[in-house]
Amino acid sequence: MSEMYDVVIIGGGPAGLAAAIYAGRAQRKTLLIEKGSYGGRINDTREIRNYPGTISDSGAGLMEKFKEHARSYATNEFKRTTVTGIEKAADGSFVIHTKRRGDFLAQCVLLDTGTKPRILGIPGEVEFAGHGVAYCATCDAEFFKGKEIYVLGAGDQAIEEADYLTNFASKVTIIVLHEEGHLDCNEVAAETAFHNPKIHFVWNSTLQEIKGKEEVESLVIKNVVTNESKEVKADGIFFFVGMVPQTEFVKDLVACDKKGYIKVNEKKETNVAGIYAIGDCTQTFLRQVVTSAADGAIAATASERYVKEKKQIDAILTPDSGKVAFLFYNPYDSAQIDVLTKMEEKLGETYHVIRQDITRQSLLYERLQMHNVPAAAYYENGQVERIEESL
Predict the structure, then answer these.
(1) pTM of whole model > 0.85?
(2) Which one of 16, 123, 185, 391 has the lowest number of neighbouring Cβ atoms within 10 Å?
(3) pLDDT tens digit sequence for 241-260
């Protein structure tokens, strides 16, 4: 078992690297664990033009800058391995189990597990993966030079990647579920595709089966209007039909929605105190590098305050701490301050009284599942005696 880290970041995407930068600046003992490439799937993006301060850069180029920045802090450590599970210890710390590096201890955990391409389970999809079935144009386009290929999907990624594939393939045919002329992508991408002589469309259709011997040789395409199916010759098929979160190993630990995305609040906190989730694996309106970086900054800052407050509470509530009374209040309500002053006078001779401004220190208040202020929690030798709300 390793020594205790202030924070362990699982995943080195834009969010995880940004969190490491913020944690490093705060001189927190930080471990970032990444199973693949630092930067994650953004490395497959050929050009980024919407990251503030960066007029144009490749995904890999921008992530290299993130990584270099994160590595510049002496308190940051980086390890490559796969996390297999997380356990919460009795003292509120966490044990992170890995496949090849053993276990690590952390005061808090940040999850940046990202997403992966959706597998539809179409007959032949899994069998021909890497043999004509592909999910990444940047990675595999050159293998289809001069060939006739198909793309499944009608969103931004599908249409933009289809356009890129025409730099290699002799013909790119997009299979679209909608009626002719209707795509799910932005107008710029659609117009570009419509005017590209190498791009063709099969409308009102879906992919039914992938056939071949050792490599993809043909596809069975079904028209959803006529229900007619036809087999067409194809050298390959690219799937761009959405992503799914990589949250399988934590789905029994933290709350997720029905799609598997982790539920978080404005501080990127999950339903488990001390565990935060950031980036594309969370419920969020927009999944971009800039939003992921913001997630990392928020979670790193929030988790720093969490650990600091937890240590303060643990130092106060010891087995021999005697009688302690925490008084919770909102400082913006002067009437509450008057109530607390009277409470302090009343309790002062019996209890060690500690005020808790819930706008700045809410950990214990939330841990006790309190909902109203002013309120009080009474302890003796580290154990809660009673709780009073709406004093």
Answers:
(1) yes
(2) 123
(3) 999 999 999 999 999 999 99
